[in-house]
Amino acid sequence: MATEKPERFDQVDWNDLSRSGRFDLSVNALGMLATAIPLVLLGLYEWQFLGRRTATFEFVGLERNLETIDYFFVFTLLLFVWFLVLPLLQNPRMTRYYWEEFKRNRPAVVSLVWLGIVFVGGLLGPLLVSAPQQDLLVAYQPPVFTSVVDTTPATCVGEVIEGRCHGTWQHPFGTTQGGKDVFTMIIYGMTVTMQIAFITTTIVAAIGISFGTLSAYAGGWVDEVMMRFVDIILSFPTFLMFLLILYIYGAGLGMFIVVFSILGWGGTARYVRSKSLSISEEEFIQASRISGASTYRVIRGHVVPNVASSIITQLTLLIPGFLLAEAQLAFLGIGDSSVPSWGQLISAGRSDLSFAPWIVLAPGIVLFLTILAFNFLGDALLDALNPEAEAENG
Amino acid sequence: MGFGRYVTARVLWAAVVSLIIVTVTFLLLAAAPNPAVQRAATQAALQGGDPAAAAERVRELRGLNQPLHVRYLDYIQSVYTLDWGWSQSRSQPVMEAVTQALYYTVQYSVPWTILTIILGPLVGVYSAANMYSWKDHAATAFAFFGYAIPNFFFGIILLLVFGVWLEVIPIVYDTGVPVFSVENAIQLAVPVFVLVTGSIGAVMRVSRNESAEFQNADFMKTAKAKGVSPLRAYAYHVMRPTLVPLSTTLVGQLLALFIGSSLLVEVVFGIPGLGRLTYEALLAQDTNLVLGTTLFFTFVAVIGNLLEDIVFTVLDPRISYDDR
Amino acid sequence: MSSDQPLLEVEDLTTTFSTDDGTLTAVDGVDFSVDTGETVCIVGESGSGKTVATESITKIIKTPPGHVEGSVRYEGRDLLSLPEPKLREIRGNEIAHIFQNPQEAMNHCYTVGWQIAEALQIHQDVSDEAARAKAVDLLDRVGIANASSRFDDYPHEFSGGQKQRVMIAMALVGDPDLLIADEPTTALDVTVQAQILKLLDELQDEFDMGILFVTHDLGVVAQIADRIVVMYAGKVMERGGVLDIFDNPAHPYTQQLLECLPEFGGTGGGIPGTLPDPHDPPDGCRFAPRCEYAEEACRTGGQPEEIEVAPGQRVSCVHYGPGGSPSVVRSEEFGPANGDETGPTGGESGVGPADD
User: Fold this and answer.
1) Partner residue facing A368 (CB), from B13, B149, B294
2) Min CA distance, A162 vs chain B (Å)?
3) pTM here?
4) A328 and B301: CB-CB below 8 Å?
5) What would you report as the CA-atom Rg of chain C, rounded to the nearest whole angstrom?
6) B154, closest residue in chain A (CA to CA)
7) Which DSSP state fits A302?
8) In terms of residue numbers, what domain contains A167?
9) In this complex, which chains have at least 3 CB pairs below 8 Å with chain B?
10) CA nearest A17: which of A8, A29, A27?
11) Same-domain status, A198 and A254
């Protein structure tokens, strides 16, 4: 229900963009189409022919179900691969140059490695590790290399030495009050984190870039009205609006993503508009206009590629806000409690904080590191991609 | 165009924005089934009555059977006359509940805001003056730590360390202590610290980067050639231009935290302020109170944005009022 | 101060900067002096160390921190050994500066009045009203119309020439004995430039100031200078009275600078070649790599000793030294193409190589 909206958004926007190239589809667009069509077909198949309780891949004998949100996640991943990773591979010289610039920033490289772990963990973890199981017998196991008084856990999985239960590699980050393995739960939380990061940024980018470039090129009163609209969007207290929607309608992760991205693109649009305006002043744009290129072509062929690097930076710096908001809502326990996010885990462990602090500490530190990594990454991208902006925005 | 006209135009625009947001809240509410109506219907069904009739009675009682535009006008009128209805969960008018909660919110918001406004730019400019020294690196590390650590998580940890283990701060917030007392200062110290850590990072970064530009500006050489001491040069010639871009970050940063994180911090520390009021209203399904607190925060946001724009315009003499 | 002592006497001034690529020597053992009431011009291409040399006098060099050596004697005091607070009392009070770009040289957040009053109140204990009165007086003196109402205007509300006038007013608050003007007219257009030069000339008489004027524009030099110091790559090439040097430039570099002027038949094309790398200057004469008369002797050792070629005119060139023959350099008749003995008079011309 709530998640239908972004589907339309994504498809209309991106497929339109690639189709309206009038048969001069790039490899990237072709690849995108080739991979997105099976996904859409699979989605239609599930929606049309499978019952709610039937697993998506039952026809090949897999016990794996795809939720609506998973479809969007895969879709954004495809976009990411075809329009960000592939172009980098296609231009090895440019990529090497960026990498040389980027490499100088040590914290950013470490951040990239960390985000890579979270990304791969979130993508493959749920496929390789089975979902955490409730097992009251192994509740409150301490993390490996630590120990607690042996009355804390129900039964100690590891050794008990001098009345203290020692942690084992079986539960590297310990277990919760329900005996669920904290490490596994963190892996599952990575999926949620990556879903939020990828889907929200895609929607924000799609709306923000279209709105910003349109406004810049329309000019005049249309521009004025569009920017006033952005003003209003920016004035919305997103967190509160989501609370209100949550209160009135109830909301899950899908709704969270929709609300936060629909109220979150104002800054991007403003940014894209000012960038487009300054870029369109440049000579090569003027030249291509004079030579008769259509406005659409100028935007698509010159403006978007030229503002892309700064938009990526801007988007990277938006992600921490979304992650934080989700964690806060999950912690309050007024969202969908079935979403296995890190905030949820922190919330669940709060009552046991004094004797089993690892339940809060492990996901909290992972969340902290991830937000930190996105910030470092954004900062480094800012320096690597547009050095002249360093002093202004850094 | 003079300053007065600019301010007038800007205030009118803020009124329009607030009206739009209020309208959105109305539409959200109108499009959903009213929980009170549902409750009445369920209750009637449980007691063997007619659920439809009971629902109708409640609808009539609350004026929900009237046409949409009449309800909308009613709603707008009561919102702007501050007649925000009756809170069922607290058995008092919503306005009164908000005012009471505000009393506690102000107690930590004022020191938090003042500390951020004073310390942020100072540390940032100091950092720029000693760029790439260990002091600058330490300040930068603190700034990143501040805006990366989730406030509620940081709060929980500090509460665990200082409240449970070291027992230097009370675990339960005591509303009985006087506002200006040592006890109150102690119990508010950690929440204020947590919020300052969260808001100061961005302020420090912006003031550092902006003042880095100004401390190398030609006018600093002029100042030096005039015989201005380094301290005075930083206090007047670097700090003052830095305040212009900073004003936009500062208000935005404080507002975002005020509306988002203060709710969490109040819940974590058990402060009976506006955030906790919102939280409890959500749990108690008290529609009027939820709406009341939401509207309150919304108005704070709109006024904050208004002030930000005006302050920015006042601070930068180069901006003519016609341009904005 | 004894009468035979110059107002400012700079000896063996050397300014170095530590950079990532090693030590950069911007000014390398430079001497010059300025007397009360006279105007000394330091001339040279951009990057020849003129600005650094003047900013070393009161140590106002911007980042990266430069290291200044040598001696700067001002009214008998050695400025380089003065502690910073004492130096601050002199800056803006006894020795004032004006800079190339008046737009950037003023803080855009304060009114011009505030900035003038600040300069005054740092050095003198005067009330705000008195400071305002004095600032308005000075604004009026430098030719700002409606001075009392413009006191409260911000820099962006002034034109380029007016801004430079305001900067001059700011420099005058302490009734300075020495005014250091660093390319004050470069950023202005020609008519405004002439007005500012005229104003400086009037003020020099009125305040009895010595002016140390930095420029790359020989046209400007002809208009205002009493004496010239020609600098190239951190070294002095030639010095002397303005008429002597314009009539009889001794150093090949000075000759080439003058040849660029239209009055001397120049095309404005500039001197071929570029300045040497300040991290690793060439042996011998600094100008040798670009000099058409350079010989083997020019490329060994250090910069040649200065030789007096006429009363008050001294040149650092191998050809004038022992064993050299000045005729190598002075082979051709030198002088304005139109035969005018007094040299160029217009302020409209600049030498080509200036790239700022």
Assistant:
1) B149
2) 23
3) 0.81
4) no
5) 21
6) A364
7) I
8) 133-180
9) A, C
10) A29
11) yes
